[in-house]
Amino acid sequence: MFRPRSVAVVGASRGVSATGSVKLGTAALEHLVAHGFPGRIYPVNPKEPELMGLPCYARLREIPDDVDLALLLVPAEACVDAVRECAAKRIKAAIVFSSGFAEAGDVALQAALVRTAREGGVRLCGPNTAGVVDVAGRLVCSISMVCALNPFREGPIAFITQSGALGGSMLGRGMEQGVGFSHWVSTGNEADLDAADYIEYLLPDDRVKVFALFLEGLRDVPRFLDICRKAARARKPIVVYKTGRSEVGRETARSHTGALAGSDQMFTALCGQFGLVRVDDLADLFPTALAFAWTVGKLPRGPRLGVISASGGVCGVAADECALAGLDIPELTEVGKARIRAFVPAFASVRNPIDVTGQIRSSATGYQDAVRTVLGEDYIDAVLLLVTMAAEPRASFYGREISGLARDAMKPVFVVWTGPVSLASEGFPMFRENRVPMFLSVRTAVNAMKALVDYAASLDRLEATP
Amino acid sequence: MTALAVDIIAEAVARGEPQLSEGDAKAFLRSWSVPTARERLVADADAARRAAADLGYPVVLKGCAPGILHKTERGLVEMDIRDAAGVTAAFDRLMERMGPGGAVLVQELVRGARELAAGLVRDPQYGPCVMFGLGGIFAEALADVTFRLAPFDQREAQAMIREIRGARVLGAIRGMPAVDLDALVDVLVALARIGIACPAIREIDINPLIVRGATPVAVDALIVLEPQSRPQGRR
Known about the structure:
Chain A is α/β, with parallel strands linked by helices and about 475 residues long. Helix content of chain A is about 40%, strand content about 15%. Chain A has helices at about 25-35, 75-90, 105-120, 165-175, 195-200, 220-235, 255-260, 265-275, 285-295, 310-325, 335-340, 365-375, 395-410, 430-435, 440-465, and strands at about 5-10, 40-45, 50, 55, 70, 95, 125, 130-135, 140, 155-160, 180-185, 210-215, 240, 275-280, 305-310, 355, 380-385, 415, 440. In chain A, β8 (about 130-135) and β9 form a beta hairpin. In chain A, α9 crosses α15 (about 440-465), α10 (about 310-325) packs parallel to α15 (about 440-465) and α11 runs antiparallel to α12. Helices cover about 35% and strands about 30% of the residues of chain B. In chain B, the strands form two sheets. In chain B, strands 5, 6, 7, 8, 9 and 10 form a six-stranded antiparallel sheet that branches. A four-stranded antiparallel sheet of chain B has the order 1-4-2-3, with helices on one face. In chain B, α1 (about 5-15) packs antiparallel against α2 (about 20-30), α3 crosses α4 and α6 crosses α7 (about 180-195). The two termini of chain B are about 25 Å apart. The model of chain B has no long low-confidence stretch (mean pLDDT about 90). The interface between A and B is medium-sized, with 25 and 35 residues.
């Protein structure tokens, strides 16, 4: 499914439907071709002799060569036969875009689809999926309008979602904001393969450094836990946003415990016990995933943060957010303070959070030395750098110097950029290029740092368990 | 599981009871080394007075029978009884309110400002899950609780305890000693083990788990059984 040498598009078409919208069969074929799939493509449609310059076949069995993967874009009722034809043609995997199965109430049709697939040795993605993408392989099997972004931005995140439309939206928004992906899978109805299967499959892939999940429900909890343990051992974090917060406890409960126990509580428990990272804000999913991808090799030993900025104001914001999140900002020791005083203007505050003041600009190395000193204090587990109003060339100074500091540090360094990005056109991209976790929101940065601390603690406990 | 624990459950299941009586629930928990209030089950006023004298005043008297839930709301808890006359009066009131078939639990009065809650629930997807948090009459209103999936070890129980919003209550505050966290961990780990070992148990409530000095003590307990597929008649 992920590394096919050839793809058949069953139900490929041209043009638009009667209502003027692009037909799904058209979209799937166009996207596959436009994103430059390097293998062989076989459109299948008895009504067309050719599509997009490619010879079009009336039936799968007429394709002279072997086919590795089939995309199914025919109506739901026709899918069972289509899967049978895939089996006859020895196609090992099919991505079923068609809707009208269990999600529309037709459980029987979906069961028939799965039965036919299992009997024929065909693995299914979907049905009712928005598609599967392998970015480096230029495999874009998707009907989502997000495919208009071309090429897709490559990066360390394998994004797996149980919602097709939301998944495509988030993917596009993420890429627009500079987030890169290795894969995207919209799992659809999970009639055959489910989220756990895709994670398990992608775990050994070197291009995948972190998983980002959008989940609505879990089918098989013990299997999912097994995958979580494997991911923890492989040091590939799973960052997840899950809906269902508003579910209430069971009404049939006779005990207080039963009344308080909702499945969302259990999911939170699962995350803490098995090393998953749960985010509360959808907008935090990708920034957190990126931060984890780049700091999984230098996890913090505790919750003690060194906070540095050239603005007293934003130091106050950071202090508040850390208090809310449960991170400590420990007082510097007298020795530590004395060390930092050597590098900052005389009137700077050397309390943590450390306000090095705007005057730090007058020193070529004062900022770097101050940061390095804080990183060296043994009661500091991680550092948060808050950059306020920096235009070029100062922005590039920060981009360069902070990237160097973060790279050399043995502890995680997160950066918050509070000013306009448009005035930092050269400096701002340096963070991503150098894999420095960068955030546009203090709260997101602080929550991600807390998540990193909790993740480190979870891994510790998991490893201690026989 | 001890033989006693097995018997308690087996007998209740055989009688088709939906839950254990408070006395049986506490006996079951004691067999798993969960500390409980000292108490005696009595069927007459004489025995009640003797039990009170043995346990030491003041005592609490409670109506005890398998079908009883919500004792407080039904007037089946007589608090702070200080002498033999009080025991007699309380005993008589309880027997009248319960009707035939009831017994009375005479219990030491456990004092402690801190009331915690611990429990077990069997989730259809997640399996047995243990709960810990702030307890007392406001437990559901506060909902300051955390959960863990069974099985889990002591380190995980320690992490769970630290997670409640009211975790500071467990420290040395307002002149009270810090709660014995090892003892608390033992209760939670025991609940996890019970969840795995006793599929006949559906839910457990230990509320309140009163901290007396530094020690958590189960003052009330509810153990709900899984419904049986073939209902058994009462004997």
